[in-house]
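agent> fetching stored inputs for the 5,6-dihydroxy-NADP docking request
agent> found them:
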Amino acid sequence: MIYDFTYCNPTKIYFGKTALTHLPSELALYGKNILLIYGKNSIKKYGIYDQIISALHQTGKTVVELAGINSNPRYSQVLQGGQLVRENHTDLILAVGGGSVIDCAKGIAASAYYQGDAWQHYWVEQGPIVNPIVPVASVLTMTGTASEMNTGSVITHEEKKLKLGRVFPFPDMTPKFSILNPEFTFTVPHLQMVSGIADIFSHLMEQYFGGTDDCTSDYLLEGVMLSLINASRKAVKNPQDYEARSNIMWCATMGLNKILALSKQQDWEVHMIEHQLGAYTDCPHGIGLAIISPAYYRYIYQHGLPKFVRFAKNIWHIPADGLNDGQIALEGIACLQSFFKELGIPQHLRDIGATEDMLPEIARSTIEGGGYYHMKSDDILQVLKNCF
Ligand code: NZQ
Ligand code: ZN
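agent> prediction call returned; pasting tokens
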């Protein structure tokens, strides 16, 4: 059923090959001081930086840059950005990149004017917004997280070895506008592309595997999963396939702008485990998710059996003949794992920099929880061992 909800997501999306032409008119709505933030070198290498700078100059902006944001952004970079915001009286933070850059921008936006320990207040205690926040906007160059249309800010505190996600309140922290040109994603390296695809798939499953009622959101989630599988197979064969890349890009945004989560009981434990895996290994987020997901679902499927049977039948078209429900559910999980393998994603934690002695620490520091089954630290350790 559809339970009572309030939903307000005001991010203005410009989608398509000419989306960037809207940047000057959007910039004109904000004051003149812009903090431009981006990653290591991709936007310069592929010419996006020059296009952004030209729009900024055209609108007479004063630009301060924060470059070099890590994949899995660091809290030290949030602090660095906060200082730049205060020193330069920033009117708008323009993030150009993937989820890491946009998440970092939101972290800066929230914490620049916080008096005290922003890490403790906003990420550890998940406290309310108590200070002025700076508007954020984005130009997306790598697709997966939906950070371009949500309020998530996942930040790694290196010294504390913690990677914590914060979902800030809607609509305060939703980007004011986001520019999505699928052509910008053509140059994303294969591993990052499939990491993004696995991240989208995981977001859909984290929202799907929860609840036992008949809910419209589950049908919508299945539709996006089917589109994503179809488009991903084409994009892996031909990364310049605009139709496929545009579908993947929109699956990503829809996958976590929270519209599909409405009225849904959800899971999110795979993400909790991956975040701590990332804190220890710095692996690409989606790759970690793809390795953990099949092991996790094999561990919990009996607690939500009807939904896993539905997943196997509706997404992977497993025929029911001669199989019991448990077998059908396991076939569905096997298809999921084969799909990730087909995309060229590594299959074990040991392939992505994890070592056996890390596993107990990762399990101990992971936030416990889940959907159909409440995972405790011992359960998490077992799942990690199962996919090591
Ligand atoms: O640093 P550069 O040189 O720009 O290279 C980046 C980076 O190495 C490269 N890249 C981006 N656009 C490119 C490109 N390379 C070539 N051509 C382009 N057009 O891609 C690499 C990965 O970028 P990154 O932003 O790290 O990837 P992603 O978008 O997957 O973001 C991952 C981060 O988002 C968090 C993850 O935990 C992770 O920290 N998440 C954020 C969420 C949210 N805001 O709601 C939810 C997610 O579940 C996730 O946790
Ligand atoms: Zn994710």
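agent> quick read of the result: The beta strands are 12-15, 33-38, 62-66, 92-97, 136-140, 152-157, 162-167, 177-180.
agent> awaiting further instructions
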